[in-house]
Amino acid sequence: MLDFWLFAAALFGLVVGSFLNVVIHRLPKMMENEWDLHCAEHRNEDIPERARYNLAVPRSACPHCGHQITAIENIPVLSWLLLRGKCSACKAPIGARYPFVEAANALLWVVCVWHFGATAQALGAMLFSSCLLVLALIDFDTTLLPDDITLPLLWAGLLANLFSLYVRLPEAVIGAMAGYLALWSVYWVFKLLTGKEGMGYGDFKLLAAIGAWLGWKMLPLIILLSSLVGAILGIALIVLAKRGKDIPMPFGPYLAAAGVIALFWGGPLNRLYLPL
User: Fold this and answer.
1) Is the pLDDT at 202 greater than 90, yes or no?
2) What is the pLDDT, as a whole number, of residue 47?
3) For burial by CB atoms within 10 Å, which of 30, 42, 91, 252 has the most?
């Protein structure tokens, strides 16, 4: 029976992963449009008419030639492989990011079912891990962590732990508060010492959301893991990708990666490093 649920998780994970690609691409643009609208209203400027742009409208299309993606061209991973990573109309390359996100989300969902079984915990873990995947990639692309995802994720974690799905509710509430205040304190200490901003407020909210899901006991491990992953990948980007040292590096992807690791293996890792 578990094999069936693993297969279902992989299948639906691919489908949902296709939608996550839309969120990753469009949500930052929707935020920019909203900011432009607010700025125009503040300056009492005439607001020009704009075509509707949200997660549903317009239909997905090739950015090079405008060819609308048909249903047969939108099958997760398979369509990209059959098209050999190219638009069917103009043969412009289609980024490998799209099948990567679909496959990554499917893998996360399979691990959720494998780890928690066919339970409510697995469903919650699917939501949690998919949101972290989206936030990590949006932050990597734009250095933004949208409130439209971080805040609902925080409240969803508290709601899940209202029923002690992962930790008891008091641990979740303290986790949310401690997660926010931990990075908020680091932000202000760094700013007072250097006069510079070392991270954004989105990072505070993301760690608060992770704390709401996993509880305060996981926060030291998550901060340790995210710092370790950030250091390794940061050095790799500088050395291998020739990324400039002065270019800001988003911290959200590392927090998200640490949150996923803690979700599945946080207990054993805590027991491993705490005695040291």
Assistant:
1) yes
2) 72
3) 252
- Torsion angles phi and psi, residue 88, rounded to 5: -70, -20
**DSSP for the chain, written as a single string:** -HHHHHHHHHHHHHHHHHHHHHHHHHHHHHHHHHHHHHHHHHTT---------SSSSS--B-TTT-PBPPGGGGSTTHHHHHTTTB-TTT--B--THHHHHHHHHHHHHHHHHHHH-SSHHHHHHHHHHHHHHHHHHHHHHHS---HHHHHHHHHHHHHHHHTTSSS-HHHHHHHHHHHHHHHHHHHHHHHHHHSS--S-HHHHHHHHHHHHHH-GGGHHHHHHHHHHHHHHHHHHHHHHS---TTS---SHHHHHHHHHHHHHHHHHHHHHHTT-
| Over residues 149-153, mean pLDDT | 97
Say what angle helices 120-142 and 252-273 make with each other, to 10 degrees.
Answer: 130
How far, in Å, CA of 91 to CA of 97, rounded?
Answer: 17
33-56 CB burial, b ≥16 within 10 A, e <16: eeeeeeeeeeeeeeeeeeeeeeee
Q: Which pLDDT value is given to residue 167?
A: 97
Rounded CA-CA distance 125/117 in Å is 11
Surface-to-core class of residue 98, CB atoms within 10 Å of its CB (0-12 exposed, 13-18 middle, 19+ buried): buried
Q: What are the structure tokens assigned to 66, written together?
A: 């405008």
Is the separation of the CB atoms in 251 and 187 below 8 Å?
no
Asked if the model's pLDDT at residue 42 lies above 70, the reply is yes
Cross-strand partners of 61: 68
Q: How many Cβ atoms from other residues are within 10 Å of residue 170's Cβ?
A: 11
